Amino acid sequence: MRKLIVAAVVAMLMLGTSVSAKEWKKIRVGVEGAYPPFSWVESDGTLKGFDIEIALALCKEIGAKCTLVTQDWDGIIPALLARKYDAIIASMSITEERKKKVAFSEKYYNTPAKFARKKGSGITISKAGLKGKVVGVQRATIHDNFVTGEFGEDVEIKRYGTQDEAYLDALAGRVDLILADSIAMEAGFLKTDNGKGWEFVGQGYSDPKYFGDGAGIAVRKQNGDLAALFNKAIKTIRANGVYKRINDKYFPFDVY
Predict the structure, then answer these.
(1) Does residue 17 have a pLDDT over 50?
(2) For residue 107, what are the CA distances in angstroms to 4, 29, 194?
(3) Strands 215-219 and 103-104
(4) What integer best gives the mean pLDDT of the chain?
């Protein structure tokens, strides 16, 4: 009988802890801060961008205080698992490979990837057209996986810690093409003074095999309750106009 009572008390304590955890009054969100127009850091250290505003809007809808934590892309999932923060809102695509490590909310946007080339280069997107060319991508991204999987035997792949590093090497003539999210590359490079000599080439790519099901919010697998809260909040801000207000500040169309 005594063992049963002890077991019951332990179970109640565990249940109480579980209920408390689901309140989520404070949420630490990991962001990259180096992926305009989705996220970047101003000269005064202020974080700006679509991802940043979406993160703050979702936390507000959940009723939680949001703390933003910047993290280099290479270590963004390991830092989540190490409890540096509770969620990642950093344009992270929902892929099967990542699902092995983390849980995801539903998507909060979905845009295709595209190649860019130097104007006048005449490069075409095919195995023959890319033969021997150098392609720049951000390391450990869906774009890296796509180029490796589809053209890895035909091209030389240069991998960078940030997207900006890839743009700089493009301007220096060290790569022939860049592959990245079309919206990020257009706003962060092609429409800038530095990128005016470059242009998109070929189709947009969104094959779920490489690109997943859109960008979602990553959480630790044991925090499925937090993912559920984000799902509900995404639906709410889509319905009440908050998402559209944020979207329209950065894009001329609905990125959802």
Answers:
(1) no
(2) 45, 16, 32
(3) antiparallel
(4) 93
